[in-house]
Fold this protein.
Amino acid sequence: MKSELKITGDGSATLYMKDLNEHYHSSYGAVQESMHVFIKTGLMALKKKTISIFEMGFGTGLNAMLTYLEADKYSSIEFHALELYPLKWNLIETLNYQGYLNLTKEQTMVFRNMHRLPWEEKIQLSSNFLLKKMKADMNNHAFHSNYDLFYYDAFAPKVQPELWTEEIFKKIFNVANAHGILVTYSARGEVRRNLQKAGFKVERLPGPPGKREIIRAIKQ
Ligand SMILES: C[S@@+](CC[C@H](N)C(=O)[O-])C[C@H]1O[C@@H](n2cnc3c(N)ncnc32)[C@H](O)[C@@H]1O
């Protein structure tokens, strides 16, 4: 599918998929949204120092990189990401994340490695950050690990309704550790209800600029 580079409201870049009429991130601010939804509302809400994360939709790797940049505050982060349509590094490097995030040479190399190193392998990117990318379809993905935190970053329910169902959330609930958290940018009623039916306690929290609310779901 063809994608176009777009600059969002906070000056950071994203990709726009013309065929789906869908952006990879909020057009009000890509980095701003990722920091708010996934890092502040998800990662920082966990009271643990050893954390396992599952991301639905690796995409540009922005959430993975923002998590990597926080990893020094933790003993260890193991980050597994699912992606059915991997993007090429020569497209990713046209996005402005290196400059926008003020990445050092070493951090830029890590970001590049996130994309260029092989899939399906566990790769230790620093002493406290391990990445495993899985090229697979969320619709029939069989989980083999348990997780503390889920970054649920599929395209919107109007575009991919099959990825926001009770059935999918139940599979996630079953592999969530006690007190595990799922965070997502969508606060649609149907998403909320499907998460509740799957067993999660759901909170609606203030969203980033341009979005009134987001969801944090907790396995109690
Ligand atoms: C909203 S974007 C994710 C943005 C990403 N987290 C980032 O930081 O750039 C949704 C992602 O889900 C991927 N995707 C779509 N359908 C999928 C499926 N059935 N299984 C796995 N990944 C899928 C898309 O290719 C896309 O990369």
